[in-house]
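Researcher: Can you fold this with 1-deoxynojirimycin in place?
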Amino acid sequence: MSNDWWRTATIYQIYPRSFQDTNADGVGDLNGVRYRLDYLVWLGIDAIWLSPFYPSPMHDFGYDVANYCDVDPLFGSLDDFDALVSAAHAKSLKIIIDFVPNHTSNEHPWFLASSSGRDNPLRDWYLWRDAQPDGGPPNNWFSHFGGSAWSWDERTQQYYLHSFLPEQPDLNWRNPQVRAAMYDVLRFWLRRGVDGFRVDVISHIVKDAAFRDNPANPNFAGEGPDIARLAQTYSSDQPEVHDVIAEIRRVVDEFPDRVLIGEIYLPIERLVAYYGKELGGVHLPFNFQLLDARWDAATIANIIEMYEAALPPGAWPNWVLSNHDRPRIAARVGAAQARLATMLLLTLHGTPTLYYGDEIGIGHVDIALERAQDPWGMREPDLGVGRDPSRTPMQWDASAFAGFSTREPWLPLTPDFATRNVATMREDDMCILRLTSKLLHYRHAHSALGIGSQRLLHASDHVLAYERLQGADQILVALNFCHDTRSFSLPNGLSGAVALSTHSGRSGERVPAKLELRGDEGIVIKIG
Ligand code: NOJ
């Protein structure tokens, strides 16, 4: 068993705009993250993943990068970044940053050059194509944010491809100069001490060389976002992408102990291909199956089994419950089941990624139309796809603006922030914050949870149970997915005591052969 740090680590995703504001502009910043490091140590996470903080016109809140090697003044400076890395490392926390290779901002100097004339040396750095004879776009591809993926450039009389906003032109990763320039970007940050990258839409970076039309999506139900109308047969997940990823990995491997994580929304069989030949791809292709899983014991058990069975030899699993693009877990399954979900996430086999704010149980936040920010939500307004409700500020205390800022934040707080905040909840032994922290520290203390094997024991009548085992360390987790009492029988001959429960008054209790779980209850049992 390799001792790579990222196998036993818990990753905590920070959306920098929404974590902590230190310069009173209503938007979070890097110094804010540094200010809150002691909290993260108390919580018990191991690595921070920062969503983009690069100079950007912010059409997609930083996922439109205008300079890969600097910090947007909104978030601070390179000095602030260096100070954050040193302070985090001094507290044994790792820093993973977001790398956005598929597209730049249309204000990036590369695109300004590329769009300045057809004979510009950087013309081929982006994906330019002629119009169809009728003047229409080169093919039928849709942007992920609605409408055609092609925009017309008046000046040079060609279309350019943008898989997301028109302000996010796609780079041409088949061009070796683009690859070389991007590898230098990686080295720039690796030399600054980052511990790894989360790579944005990594499966999209190579497109079909002939730009063929995508076929209709046979599963499209007649309504939904434009992007769902077609199968992404030629615009994503091309066979050639794996060679490019292997190159990226070799760059990262020039530096010891770094991790490469890929953002990939694909079915399991195609997802696991991203571990790469001889595992020379990304270390962790994000496993997003819990993001939209039907929330019941049998479905989750099935996902766990299928996923584990699909992992190639040597591949390390990982799990995600929420992120800045998807509804928060508490919004999806409710407050009681969110506690259970946290227990699931932090006891499963594989590296967990915890989304900031989930530890205080932030649920759905209504965003009034006039406060909406997300470009996707605004481009397809009738679909409810807006991502603002998952990006609201972290709530630290009961003061005005929840200790996030001294002025009105860029997105609203939850209506119950006076009680749903870190300072208040740290005092309450039974709240989800303390549960999360206890689980994280228990995970550190028990190698069975960190690196142990996993065996499913039971998945019926709303109860999911599994065992984690490492040497003499044996732990059993039983989760009740319904609101009523359920019972669960321990496997023959096993006995133990409750180490942690989502509910009160149970810690230390000896577990009888037939165990009663209260509605929505999850428990961690130490066998022995
Ligand atoms: C995925 C990111 O997570 C999302 O927030 C962004 O809008 C798109 N990629 C485009 O970069």
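Model: Folded with 1-deoxynojirimycin in place. The chain has a mean pLDDT of 97.
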